[in-house]
Design brief:
The complex is a heterodimer of chains A (567) and B (125).
Chain A: E1 3-4, H1 18-94, H2 97-100, H3 103-116, E2 120-127, E3 132-136, H4 150-157, E4 160-162, E5 175-182, E6 188-195, H5 198-205, E7 214-219, E8 250-257, E9 260-268, E10 274-280, H6 282-376, H7 383-411, E11 418-421, H8 423-433, H9 437-440, E12 444-448, E13 456-459, H10 460-477, E14 483-492, E15 495-502, H11 509-512, H12 531-541, E16 545-551, E17 555-563
Parallel strand pairs in A: 12-14
Antiparallel strand pairs in A: 1-16, 2-3, 2-6, 4-5, 5-6, 7-10, 8-9, 9-10, 11-13, 14-15, 15-17, 16-17
Chain B: E1 5-9, H1 13-25, E2 29-33, H2 36-45, E3 50-54, H3 62-72, E4 77-82, H4 87-93, E5 102-107, H5 112-124
Classes of the chains: A alpha+beta (567), B alpha/beta (125).
Chain lengths: 567, 125
């Protein structure tokens, strides 16, 4: 059924247009974006800063044990090398040449040294030409000439020399300590000892680091002096980004080379060509770090989700409130405009009606007098014709008068006169106003009122006008032999509903939208178009509402809802 | 012919003369005038049972005129004739005591028979 709702009916209450929806959606998006940025940015920045601080603090914390370890180990290595170096220097300087210059003498010295200090693999005495004159040790190296060996040149220049690890004649890694003794005649000889690498390896092994960490020695050119787990084989260049001439100790330098990354720490071993290298795999160190870092990240993620939920919720709520407020404001503005329009039309209508009433009155009286004269005169020729003319004039005056009175009624802004009313009785009075027309036209009037229907407080005269307007419309829409039905209902505790249905022609959907507007009429020249607009205005004023439903060819139902008590 | 004497006051002479003539045809003794001062003068000159007066008169409002008539001639019954709407409500809204003693309000154009009946009712009670 085509239906047009006019419950406090104003177009402003219609659904929002797509532009409006778009506008509110955009507002919502801006709000969400702004609130999210404002609340999340500080959180993210704080998390980043705290992460960096944490990382720094943690690195400091980790650095300390590493530097301790490094310092201790390098000192141990240093002292091991120093002890051997000093022992050798002492022997070469303090032992008389003759004591050393014999195989037995050398062997006895070797035994003593090994007994006291340990770690000596062999011992040799080399003359200033580089010939190994005497040799005590597991290999047969007596008679070897070292003149071409770099260590020999070094020791010839300096007093004492510690060599890199090299393969030499023995073809296994070793390093030598050589100490020179210059004779009064300017000639010199060198006491050369091979030191067991195990002496250094033992120190290194004792560190007992994690399986992914690595500790080894290199020389100042970066050549590996011991075996390394991950960074190359002995005497190869270490696969690490090392400084060319490391000075002093450095700890936890982050590096990435090839597929390996980690933290590099190193300490040069003083008075030796060695550098102690400690490589920590990130996994070992970062275990704590990743825990420390992940906790704030988890907190950040959780807070972000929570903040976003709150932002979404509050934005939606806020935009909805704005939309409601906008709608309410638009409705109030529209009502105001509508009321103003009505008031203007009312003033205009009243003015027009009043001005027209005087000339109409004159016509009324003149035509009336003419009729009186003709009526009272018997011998008036063409009496019937004149009477017919006068009656037609009077009928037209009545029609004019009906229009002006409706206009005046429309213009009226009267105060309601409230009394207690029995609606059924009031409706029967209204039907009484119709006179005998329904009877003549064989139209059935039906009442459907529940017993003990409550009385209401309202204005009798105005309600009569309301229902008379509706019933008059129903009567003119209904064919002879049709029906008009009144039904009384109680939709809730506070109001009553009067439904007036007819079996009339119905109202076209396009007309249905306009029937409550002033000057809209479907009755052509017979309607003023004021009936239903007045009706709605009165119902509004009485605190009620009016709705209409209609289907063309089947009929129309008007429902007037009225408050039981005056608000 | 009964002896009811009525004065009709309206600024439209065409209307008031015709109305008076028609009232006379229906047995009332009717006079007319078109302004307030003239009406008061007429009422001084002779007795009237009722006045039918337009709400809108030049120089003086119908209500003001009615108040003066009521003061000077308390027995005269007043009927109001108007082309405006909602006069009864306007009258009801006047503060208590100020409400004029108006027997009937008739809206223009008036039905002559209704007018005659109302005048008779007003005068004879």
């Amino acid at each position: 059924m085509a239906s047009e709702q006019f419950r406090n009916s104003h177009p402003a209450e219609e659904k929002p247009s797509p532009e409006d929806r778009h506008r509110y959606h955009r507002l919502w998006r801006y709000s969400v974006l702004l609130m999210a940025v404002v609340s999340l940015t500080p959180l993210i920045i704080m998390t980043i800063i705290s992460n960096q601080q944490y990382q720094k603090a943690l690195q400091e914390e980790m650095r300390y044990p590493v530097s301790q370890l490094l310092a201790n180990t390098s000192r141990s290595l240093e002292s091991v090398i120093d002890v051997h170096k000093h022992a050798l220097t002492l022997v070469v300087h303090e032992k008389p040449r003759d004591d050393l210059w014999s195989k037995d003498g050398l062997a006895s010295t070797f035994t003593t040294l090994n007994r006291i200090f340990g770690g000596f693999v062999d011992l040799g005495l080399v003359d200033s030409q580089g010939n190994q004159v005497f040799y005590v040790g597991p290999y047969n190296l007596e008679g070897n000439n070292y003149n071409n060996q770099p260590w020999f040149h070094e020791v010839a220049l300096r007093e004492v020399y510690v060599s890199d690890v090299f393969m030499g004649y023995r073809n296994f890694p070793h390093f030598v300590i050589a100490a020179k003794h210059v004779l009064p005649d300017g000639d010199f000889y060198v006491l050369r000892a091979t030191i067991d690498m195990e002496l250094l390896n033992r120190q290194i092994r004792s560190l007992d680091l994690g399986p992914s960490s690595d500790v080894f020695l290199i020389n100042r050119s970066g050549i590996l002096q011991t075996n390394s787990r991950y960074h190359g084989a002995l005497l190869q260049k270490a696969a690490l980004p090392l400084p060319d001439h490391p000075q002093g100790m450095r700890t936890l330098v982050e590096f990435a080379s090839g597929d390996r990354a980690g933290f590099l720490s190193y300490a040069p071993i003083e008075r030796s060509p060695f550098v102690l290298i400690l490589v920590h795999h990130p996994q070992d160190l970062m275990q704590i770090w990743s825990t420390v870092r992940n906790n704030p990240l988890r907190f950040l993620a959780g807070s972000s989700v929570l903040i976003l939920l709150v932002v979404l919720g509050s934005s939606t709520y806020m935009v909805n409130r704005i939309r409601l407020a906008d709608t309410r404001r638009a409705r109030i503005l529209h009502n105001l405009e509508y009321t103003n329009k009505m008031a203007s039309i009312g003033r205009l209508a009243a003015g027009v009606a009043h001005e027209i009433n005087n000339p109409i009155s004159i016509i009324n009286e003149k035509a009336g007098l003419l009729k009186d004269i003709v009526d009272s005169s018997d011998q008036f020729t063409q009496r019937e014709k004149v009477l017919a003319l006068v009656n037609s004039m009077l009928h037209s005056v009545e029609r004019c008068s009906a229009v002006t009175h409706r206009l005046l009624g429309f213009a009226r802004r009267m105060e309601a006169h409230i009394e207690t009313l029995d609606l059924e009785m009031l409706l029967k009075e209204v039907v009484g106003f119709l006179g005998r027309e329904p009877e003549h036209r064989n139209i059935t009037i039906k009442f459907d009122a529940p017993p003990n229907f409550p009385t209401i407080e309202s204005d009798r005269g105005q309600l009569q006008q309301v229902f008379l307007n509706i019933v008059n419309n129903a009567l003119s829409a209904t064919q002879n032999g049709g029906w008009i039905q009144f039904a009384l209902q109680e939709p809730d505790d506070y109001s009553v509903a009067v439904t007036i249905c007819d079996s009339g022609a119905g109202i076209a959907p396009e007309d249905l939208k306009h029937i409550f507007e002033p000057f809209f009429s479907t009755k052509g020249e017979f309607g003023t178009g004021l009936g239903l607009s007045i009706t709605r205005e009165i119902v509004d004023k009485l605190g009620g509402s009016i709705t209409v439903e209609s289907r063309q060819g089947e009929g129309t139902c008007f429902t007037v809802i009225l408050p039981k008590a005056r608000i | 012919m009964d002896d009811i004497r009525v004065l009709v006051i309206d600024d439209e002479e065409e209307l008031v003369t015709t109305l008076v003539e028609r009232l006379a045809m229906r047995g009332l003794q009717a006079d007319w005038c078109t302004s307030g001062p003239e009406a008061l003068q007429r009422l001084e000159q002779r007795h009237y049972d009722a006045v039918v007066l337009d709400l809108k008169l030049p120089g003086i409002s119908g209500l003001e005129l009615q108040r003066r008539i009521q003061q000077a001639h308390p027995g005269v019954k007043t009927l109001l004739m108007t082309g405006q709407g909602g006069v009864e409500e306007e009258l009801a809204r006047l503060p208590g005591g100020a409400a004029p003693d108006i027997r009937e309000v008739l809206y223009k154009p008036v039905n002559i028979q209704v007018l005659v009946d109302k005048i008779r009712t007003a005068v004879k009670g």
